Amino acid sequence: MLKKFDRGLDAVLTFCGALLFSIALVITAVQVFLRYAINQPLFWAEELARLCFLWMIYVGSILAVRYDKHMVVDIFYETLPQWGKRILDTIVLVVVGVFLIVLTKEGYGLVLAEMTSVTPAMQIKVGYVYSIIPLAGLAMLFYLVFPYKPAKTSSLSE
Hints:
By secondary structure, the chain is mainly α. The chain has one domain (2-145). It has helices at 2-37, 45-66, 75-79, 82-113, 126-130, 132-145. The longest helix is centred in the N-terminal third of the chain and has 36 residues, at 2-37. The radius of gyration is 20 Å and the shape is elongated.
């Protein structure tokens, strides 16, 4: 059941990230064309591209946590003995976990606080825009607790 949820969430996140990128790219290109070629810009295009970009960042962060692909500086880490690496890994896991719990809690508070505000051009409730913050926090916590383990494949070179 958990594996099915994991695969489903991964597929949805990957699709959403690609879709958000595509929308931001297309709407920005159309906006540039309309503004400079026929001098008739879309008043809502910049706002939509910015919202897509915001959501894309959080979706990408979720996938980065899922596949353990966040940037690291490992000069210090590589000099540690094996027991030191385990201790540092545990410390990092706890610190990231606490950060994600705070992000989720405070993001939820922000969503509730901003439900009365609307975006200027598209008139979307700002709380809906910010809803990605607690959702991403929960998804990253899920992947922190249940890390991705790629299936072992056999290789002819082994």
